[in-house]
Amino acid sequence: MRHPIDIVAMFAAIWLLAALMLDVLTPKELTAVMIAIAIGPAIVITAVFYYLRCPRTDFAVMFAALWLISDIAIAFVSPKELPLWLLVLGFMPAMLIGIVLHWQRLQRRHERLPLPSAKRG
Fold first, then answer.
1. Once rounded to an integer, what is the mean pLDDT over residues 23-40?
2. DSSP secondary structure letters along 53-118
3. Cα→Cα distances 3→6, 13, 64, Å
4. CA-only gyration radius of the chain, Å
5. 78: how many CB neighbours lie within 10 A of its CB?
6. For a surface tag, which of 1, 5, 34, 108 has the fewest beta carbons within 10 Å of its beta carbon?
7. How far apart are the C-alpha atoms of 103 and 108, rounded to whole Å?
8. Are residues 93 and 63 in contact, defined by beta-carbon separation less than 8 angstroms?
9. Given a cut of 90, is residue 119 above it in pLDDT?
10. pLDDT, position 114
11. What are phi and psi of 30, to 5 degrees?
12. Residue 113: what pLDDT?
């Protein structure tokens, strides 16, 4: 069973790790505190959906959307322009999840019911 204190500890550790890693990757003018403030709401919302046992697909799509929003928030709070590769990194989870969902849909297309045909009489 998912205990709320375990979830808080897990997501707090992920939040700190993400803020420190992004601090290393971004320009020196953007501090870890600014990054932590920008990604904090996304971490909290993700933790709430994890606690509510959101289905995996919905959780993955929501995570990708929040990651992209956090990337945009970091770009807004940055006093200096971010490198292009860092902005592209924000789109990667959404793109990967989109590819996986599309691939699953293509794999299951034979399971769908065929369209009814018009009867000729």
1. 92
2. T--HHHHHHHHHHHHHHHHHHHHHH-SSPPPHHHHHHHHHHHHHHHHHHHHHHHHTTTTSPPPPPP
3. 5, 16, 24
4. 20
5. 17
6. 1
7. 9
8. yes
9. no
10. 67
11. -95, 110
12. 62
Look at the block and give the residue holding tokens 């065929």: 114
Q: pLDDT digit string (tens) for 77-86?
A: 988 888 888 8
Tokens 């919302």 identify what position? 45
DSSP 29: T
| CA atoms within 13 A of residue 102's CA, in its CB half-sphere | 6
- CA–CA separation, 24 vs 64, rounded Å? 22
Residue in the structure block whose two tokens are 């995996």: 56
Tokens encoding 47: 């933790």
% the chain with pLDDT above 90? 64
pTM: 0.79
